Amino acid sequence: MTSIVQPEDTQVAVTERTAWHAGAGAAVAAFVGFLALVAGAVGLVILSISTQTPVLIVGAVVLAIAALLLVSMVVVVAPGHTLVVQLFGKYVGTVRAQGLGLVLPLTTRQRVSVRVHNFETAELKVNDSTGNPVNIASIIVWQVADTARATFAVEDYEEFIVSQAESALRHVTTSHPYDADEAVAGATSLRGSTDQVAAELAEQVAARVELAGLEILEARISSLAYAPEIAQAMLQRQQASALLAAREKIVEGAVGIVENALTRLEENGTVELDDERRAAMVSNLLVVLCSDSRTTPVVNTGSLYS
């Protein structure tokens, strides 16, 4: 019977801790000791040759080895970088202190940058929640928070975050429509709710890269558009919606103007209008106010009833 391997069973259980580290003073002393040991080794070699005493060569070799071990302890850590220290393959800690210093001998060190990084994902073609294909891309700002996890938990943390960011972007895109329905109050959309979508994207990416010891500082949508095969149809739809909204606004304003005109005429007693004359006046004013083209006036010299 085949068992299913759980994700936690495959993760490397390691977290960052501080490695032993001495400051610049100790590093300078170690360098002076290195010079002294080298001088002693050279002196023993010269003395061995001059006195014909081969046994002194052994002492010179010992001093040379000690000098090499001593100088190998000296490290320099640049700002924005750390050293992940291993002793015979075992993680012993991370050095974050900047400048000159000493670490344990016989250790290997790997430099890991903790500076802020950013990258832009490839433009992905994804269906939104309504099934419309959209092209979308994002910018992710991140940095290494746990150097031990970044080094040992994943093979390549830079490649890992790129693939996980694209996966999170696909998930967020399929959860929202490109445009929200105006009839639904508080509805979110990729185009209209950019801050909310960005926050959700950052949360999704952070959850995916936590095991690699990475921290997401910011996530933003950098590119968003309908896929080319439906872009023209969606543009016509948007234009139609905009035209209807504009017409509705024009009609609403025209009705208000007509109501105001009729009220003022009646209040001032300028003219008395019966229902038929009122209807004619309303019709004429609405035509003038709502027409797309310039209205040509017609002078009526007769009676409305003849």
Automatic annotation (TrEMBL):
Pfam families: Band_7 (PF01145). Residues 72-238 form the Band domain. Keywords: Membrane, Transmembrane, Transmembrane helix. It comes from the Bacteria. Gene3D superfamilies: Band 7 domain (3.30.479.30). The chain crosses the membrane at residues 20-47, 54-78. SMART domains: PHB. InterPro entries: Band_7 (IPR001107), Band_7/SPFH_dom_sf (IPR036013). This is Band 7 protein. It comes from Tsukamurella pseudospumae.
